[in-house]
Amino acid sequence: MTYKHQYIDGTPIHFPLGKIVCIGRNYADHAKELNNPVPTEPLLFIKPGSCTVPLEGGFSIPDDRGEVHFEAEIAVLIGKPLSRRPNEEEVRDAISGFAPALDLTLRDVQSRLKEKGHPWELAKSFDGACVLAPFVPGDAVESLTDIGIRLTINGEVRQDGTSRDMVNAILPLLQHISANFSLQPGDVVLTGTPAGVGPLKQGDSLVLELVGLSRFESRVL
After folding, report:
1. Count of domains forming the chain
2. What is the pTM of this model?
3. Which residues 6+ apart lie within 8 Å of 31 measured at CB?
4. Has residue 61 been placed in a domain?
């Protein structure tokens, strides 16, 4: 199924699908579980928009490249251009929505690339590597420091975090990104994953939530 931005009530969002900006190790507990240091400034990498697939209806994962790990994240949809160190009010005004997302990683591939000192794109940017749910409108979220993200697989809660635990909070994070390169309407920022990441398997049943805001059921096909 082709991915297109939409709100949770089914209303289309008429922005082109842009780039996916990801934040590595933005929860200290996740950095520790992978034996990685906590960065002193945001660790950024980009996925192409073409790797995005919808959560609803189920999604597929590669079956010939080793383990595929899930990373549940709060996704932020950009609705207005941001560049050149915007203030927090400008950043807040540019947010069109929030959604739960999965940043998928070919973990075995990533480990081999890291050992060689190579970039991670093969592990992070494959087709289907960004699984994205519909968005809650930005103005429906009162506090950006209290957004919960939860992933349940086969009835077991695997990740349960909140934006208050982020190393870099959402508004300063968007300021940092847009001070280094512009964000455009239709771009999505994945804000990092809490602890609990692990492998997905074909047939897994998932519930992905922004706690109290949106809840979606899906399946690995």
Report:
1. 1
2. 0.96
3. 25, 37, 38, 39
4. yes
